[in-house]
Amino acid sequence: MNDKDQIEKVVQLYVDSMDESNPDKVKQAFHANAKVVGYLHGDFMEMSVDDFSSFVASQQPSPKEKGDNVVFEILSCEIEGTTASVKVRDKYLGITFLDTLSFIKIDSEWKLYNKLFHVESE
To answer: Which of 15, 48, 102, 103 ranks highest by number of CB atoms within 10 Å?
Structure first.
């Protein structure tokens, strides 16, 4: 599997984690030191992977169980050696986000290292 396919697989894992409210999938997709940062409802948010996985797990019933699946589109994927940047538009919990996802390749495995999110519409 080439780098682009591997990265897209991690993006799918990230989306599935939110869709299923699955904290274990969050932790599989993200590097342990990753951050999730952005503004939500006008408030600055900065979360660790543990914070984000707890938030995802708290969404009960999950979007998938409610029939409100997370819809997403990969807008761009730029790979430079062992780093990559991916822009994703996704609709989660009724909010449309534009995510800028930074990836790092460690021991031939791609991991999300940083998520910057922008709310396009609530």
So the answer is: 103
